[in-house]
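Proteins fold reproducibly. Look at a concrete instance:
___
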Amino acid sequence: MTIISKSKKCVVNFDNVEKIYVSGDNVSIKADMKSGRGTELAKYNSGENCKCAMGILAHAMRNGDDLFEFPNESEMNFGTQHTSKVTSMKRSHGGS
């Protein structure tokens, strides 16, 4: 899976990630890489938005999506949030 940060300034290959987590400030999502380096993937205005974004990422991972882009706050509507608002792409296996 390829992960695009909320700022669109960072692209991460999930194969190189050791862990993705919510940081101690409860509004940032960070990734620790297998190389020992780390990066911030997203920062939100609230802990609720941050947790929601992590849930959307987990959903994309369970679905086997090839691409995930962290959503902006404007794309996140609590109570009516749908993962279809988030850019993700399923792996294509050919066909017509």
Remarks:
- Confidence is low (pLDDT under 50) at residues 78-85.
- Strands lie at 2-4, 11-13, 17-22, 28-33, 38-43, 67-69, 88-89.
- The longest helix spans residues 47-62.
